[in-house]
């Protein structure tokens, strides 16, 4: 049960009381005290306070500097997240029930506490006294969940819910950059060959992250050709796996290195004659080859892979899932700004561009202009890098990435 507003305000007041210094003469209730000090001279009124929030433009684990921005609307303002608002962030799916429930709980707690939520730091985390109340509440809920899958769903929904509320009125809903840095007008859309479909299997900590590159794929190709699937959100995952079952396991591959018992390359991908012929015909329906990109930090990718493998085994009874590796991987332009743990690891969009380039080199696919589609993704990466760099320069932040591996590796 939530504490009433009065104790919360009392707790906040108590935290502002100064600690007694050693040897400080404490006064008894009725003892005469020294005369009060003269009042301090008046100071100019400060500017109106603004709620703060910041998103990281570094990889996970690095501290982000906070930037001033308007806070989200409270219970009397923005209210609950609608399906239309949800879909504007880059998905065609309905608003997941568990995410809607978390958002509703946050708004109810805000109303009971009598103060607006404030967000800030990496991942749009809650700030202030409200954070302590919400933290106790969510820990209590978490302990009531006995099933590990329910705990994962609640964890993911809470991450996503905070990001949704903390980004209102601040981030562009298409490019996930602050409104003043929106790059949408600079991006040129491009049609992806209908013989393939990208799936962005995204960790919730990458959702609405400014320097995430997976979002570029649906900005360039559209949300039907490059679909978002959020890790731990059952409704999202069911949509993706239903598509896999319609296509058949032969038309599903995961771009993830060194995990299959028999590693495969792009040349091992199979395209049937129907897919090859329909790619040049208008109005022909086909089940595309599903290419899954694991979108998250390298430290989180292991959890993404394990969950994919568990679902694959449950559906098709096979321990080994079909993974492919790129043979000509080059460093992404984002390496200039965002560190990577090793020279041979790259960002999601660069991996997609590399995959399209290697598909283009197959003679039977040369007619589908896959090289042009790869160039469209690379161009979007350049635009994102320029936008992030310009923002950091304007805010007086460094544009030199931290050294994470040996210089002679690149």
From TrEMBL:
Gene Ontology MF, one: tRNA-uridine aminocarboxypropyltransferase activity
DTW domain ranges (all copies): 168-397
Pfam families named among the record's database cross-references: DTW (PF03942)
Reaction(s) the record says it catalyses: a uridine in tRNA + S-adenosyl-L-methionine = a 3-[(3S)-3-amino-3-carboxypropyl]uridine in tRNA + S-methyl-5'-thioadenosine + H(+)
Biased composition annotated in UniProt, kind: Pro residues: 31-47
InterPro entries documented for this protein: DTW, DTWD2/TAPT
Broad enzyme group: transferase
PANTHER family to which the protein is assigned, alphabetical: TRNA-URIDINE AMINOCARBOXYPROPYLTRANSFERASE, TRNA-URIDINE AMINOCARBOXYPROPYLTRANSFERASE 2
Protein name stated in the entry: tRNA-uridine aminocarboxypropyltransferase
Organism: Triticum turgidum subsp. durum (Durum wheat)
């Amino acid at each position: 049960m939530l504490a009433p507003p009065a104790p919360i305000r009392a707790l906040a007041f108590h935290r502002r009381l100064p600690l007694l210094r050693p040897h400080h003469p404490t006064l008894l209730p009725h003892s005469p005290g020294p005369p009060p000090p003269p009042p301090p001279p008046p100071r100019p009124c400060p500017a109106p306070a603004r709620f703060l929030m910041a998103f990281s433009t570094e990889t996970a684990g690095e501290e982000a500097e906070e930037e001033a921005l308007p806070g989200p609307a409270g219970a009397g303002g923005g209210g609950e997240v609608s399906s239309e608002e949800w879909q504007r962030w880059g998905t065609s799916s309905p608003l997941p029930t568990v995410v809607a429930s978390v958002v509703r709980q946050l708004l109810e707690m805000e109303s009971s506490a009598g103060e607006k939520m404030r967000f800030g730091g990496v991942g749009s985390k809650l700030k202030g006294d409200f954070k302590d109340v919400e933290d106790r509440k969510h820990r209590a809920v978490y302990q009531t969940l006995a099933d590990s899958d329910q705990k994962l769903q609640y964890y993911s929904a809470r991450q996503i819910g905070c990001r949704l509320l903390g980004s209102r009125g601040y981030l562009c809903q298409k490019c996930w950059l602050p409104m003043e840095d929106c790059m949408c007008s600079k991006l040129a859309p491009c049609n992806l060959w209908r013989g393939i479909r990208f799936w962005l299997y995204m960790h919730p900590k990458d959702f609405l992250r400014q320097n995430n590159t997976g979002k570029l794929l649906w900005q360039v190709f559209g949300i039907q050709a490059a679909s978002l699937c959020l890790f731990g959100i059952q409704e999202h995952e069911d949509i993706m796996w239903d598509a896999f079952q319609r296509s058949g396991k032969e038309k599903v591959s995961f771009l993830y290195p060194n995990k299959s018992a028999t590693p495969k390359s792009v040349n091992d991908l199979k395209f049937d004659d129907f897919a090859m012929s329909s790619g040049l015909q208008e109005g022909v329906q086909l089940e595309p080859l599903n290419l899954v990109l694991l979108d998250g930090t390298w430290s989180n990718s292991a959890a993404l892979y394990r969950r994919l493998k568990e679902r694959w085994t449950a559906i098709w009874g096979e321990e080994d899932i079909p993974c492919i590796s790129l043979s000509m991987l080059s460093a992404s332009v984002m390496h200039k700004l965002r560190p990577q743990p090793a020279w041979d690891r790259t960002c999601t969009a660069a991996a997609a561009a590399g995959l399209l380039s290697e598909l283009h080199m197959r003679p039977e696919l040369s007619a589908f202009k896959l090289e042009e589609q790869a160039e469209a993704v690379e161009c979007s990466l350049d635009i994102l890098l320029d936008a992030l760099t310009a923002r950091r320069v304007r805010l007086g932040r460094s544009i030199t990435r931290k050294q994470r591996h040996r210089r002679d590796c690149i």
